[in-house]
Structures are given as structure tokens and as C-alpha cells.
Design a protein that fits this description.
Number of helices: 3
Oligomer: single chain
Radius of gyration: 17 Å
């Protein structure tokens, strides 16, 4: 454990930030699972709505450096491709 007061504060803020980031990542993962289930079931409209939510949340997380920009682009691209193949 750190002895310096500023280091102790840093540890506490890091714990708090880690929990917040973990929560945001978990939320996105849950939406992605729901998206995949909707695609499997053939619910295109539901999948579109979920895609909008995922895209928004991932871009917000990207702005806060929770996700890397390439991961966001790759994930949204895959989801969009899945939607397009279901429509065709």
C-alpha cells in the first residue's frame, strides 16, 4: 500500500474508474449478445434498434478511451455487415 497521500488518492480514483469502465464494457457486450440473438431469430427491426444503441455507446466509450478506435470501427462494421446480409 502506498504511503504518500496523493498516491493513495490515485489508487482510489483508479479503482473507481476501473469499475466505471468495466460497467460500460459490460453494457456494450450485453447489447452485442442481444444483437446476435436478434439476427439469429431474424428480427431485423429489433437488431437495427440495438445496433443504434451499441454504436452510440461504443463511440462514447471510445471518446473516453475505454475502447480503441479500431475496435469500435471493427465491431460496428461487423454488425452492419450482419444486418446487410440479413436484408439481402
Amino acid at each position: 500500500m502506498a504511503n504518500i497521500k496523493s498516491a493513495q488518492k490515485r489508487i482510489e480514483t483508479t479503482k473507481r474508474d476501473t469499475l466505471r469502465n468495466k460497467s460500460r464494457k459490460s453494457e456494450v457486450k450485453t447489447y452485442i449478445k442481444k444483437f446476435d440473438e436478434a439476427i439469429e431469430a431474424g428480427n431485423i427491426e429489433e437488431a437495427r434498434e440495438i445496433f443504434k444503441k451499441v454504436d452510440k455507446r461504443m463511440k462514447q466509450a471510445e471518446a473516453k478511451n475505454i475502447y480503441h478506435k479500431n475496435k469500435v470501427a471493427r465491431t460496428t462494421s461487423r454488425m452492419q455487415r450482419a444486418l446487410n446480409t440479413q436484408n439481402a
